Amino acid sequence: MDTNNPLTTEPPTTRARRRGLGWTVAILLLAGAGLAVWSVPALAPVRERLEGLLAQRQGVEGQAPDTAETAAPPVFRPTKQQLASFGIETVQAREFRPEGFAEGRIGVNEDDNVPVYSPYAGRVTKVMVRAGDRVKANQVLFTLEAADMVSALNDFQAASNALAKNSALLKLNQTVAARLQELFQAKAVALKDWQQAQNDVIAAQSDQRSAEASLQAVRNRLRILGKSDAEIDAFARSGAMSPETEIRAPIAGTIVQRKVGLGQYLGSGSDPAFVIGDLSTVWLVANVRETEVPRIKLGQELEASVIGFPDRVFKARINYMAASLDPATRRLPVRAEIDNAEGLLRPEMFATFTILTGRDESAPAIPASAIVYEGARARIWIERPDGTIASRNVTLGLTGGGLVQVVDGLKVGERVVTRGSLFIDRAASGDKAS
């Protein structure tokens, strides 16, 4: 074989020897690179990435559980500038209480709510108060010209005239009887004439009593219609009285509703002209969702908030639960009575309610901003003693005051990232944060 010819074929054993030598060198180079990855601190992110890939491969080949359960948690190594921009807080314990939520309104206390009806029919001639006005007991609310008043005045006039007539007749009969008695004693008249005169006096006295009773009955009617004794006596003297009747407030309070206007005719079946309520106490009326009903009980504490006073919380205890749901809203009305001495709460104000349905539970609490959600799962980022930040799955519970209860996965005293969690999450997953 010519060794100087470049086209001369090389023996197979030589080629095999060279190929084996090449594989040996390649393996040594790969081993050295792997050793560098696992030993050089600057290449730690590459090492962690390789560990994750190996764990994923093992999980697939060995039919292992979900990689989220077996893989090492993601770790982020922030720079000093990044660390300064994050918000990191020490986890504290906080009391959480199971709560239910509902919407509703402020209602008048119907136990101290009095409707004012007109006791007779007639046309309204004056209205003295408006809705929202405070009134005193016996204050005039409105007047009306009642047909019953006109009839009563006529009857009073007739009864007064009948009484005056009977009084005059009684005096006349008494004078005649006295005169006949003198004549009988002088034997100038017969006994029967004197006795007849006495009978006339007795009859006149009976008519007098009947006329007085009739007049008293009419006076009582006028009192019922709102006329005072002074007004009735003045009418008896002058014979003139206005047919208008005054309707007065039965209690002191606030005009909650007004359903009467000038010139309106009120009949016996009309709605109440006014509704007077004592607003020193009001009702908190909450409409509870059907799913919340099993947790609601009498005596539970209820907290109400209204738009007009966003910084105030009004507390009371449930003292009434309806027997059935409202068919229109499919919700259960519940209510509580609360003192309203300051007059801040007005009927028909919209209110939101928090009902405390259980006992306080102490647990680690974190701000809602610290939580990263992945579907049904929740994660947080924890600062470790070595300065790195690691991801951790947590189980969440109740919420309140901007804080979230952590049922599992976190202990009091650990440090959690409260600002910058999303940035860390994107950076650790390899995305570019903008």
Automatic annotation (TrEMBL):
GO biological process, one term: plasma membrane copper ion transport
Keyword Magnesium on entry: no
UniProtKB keywords: Cadmium resistance, Membrane, Transmembrane, Transmembrane helix, Transport, Zinc
GO CC terms in record: membrane; outer membrane-bounded periplasmic space
Annotated transmembrane regions: 21-40
A Pfam family reported for this protein in Swiss-Prot or TrEMBL: BSH_CzcB
InterPro entries assigned: Beta-barrel_RND_2 (IPR058792), BSH_CzcB-like (IPR058647), MdtA-like_C (IPR058627), MFP_Cation_Efflux (IPR051909), RND_pump_MFP (IPR006143)
UniProt-listed SUPFAM superfamilies: HlyD-like secretion proteins
Domain CusB-like beta-barrel: 281-355
GO molecular function, one term: transmembrane transporter activity
Boundaries of every Multidrug resistance protein MdtA-like C-terminal permuted SH3 domain copy: 380-420
Domain CzcB-like barrel-sandwich hybrid: 116-270
UniProt keyword Transmembrane present: yes
Role this protein plays: CzcA and CzcB together would act in zinc efflux nearly as effectively as the complete czc efflux system (CzcABC). The CzcB protein is thought to funnel zinc cations to the CzcA transport protein.
Family under the similarity heading: Belongs to the membrane fusion protein (MFP) (TC 8.A.1) family.
The protein's name: Efflux transporter periplasmic adaptor subunit
Organism encoding this protein: Methylobacterium platani
Classification of source organism: Bacteria, Pseudomonadati, Pseudomonadota, Alphaproteobacteria, Hyphomicrobiales
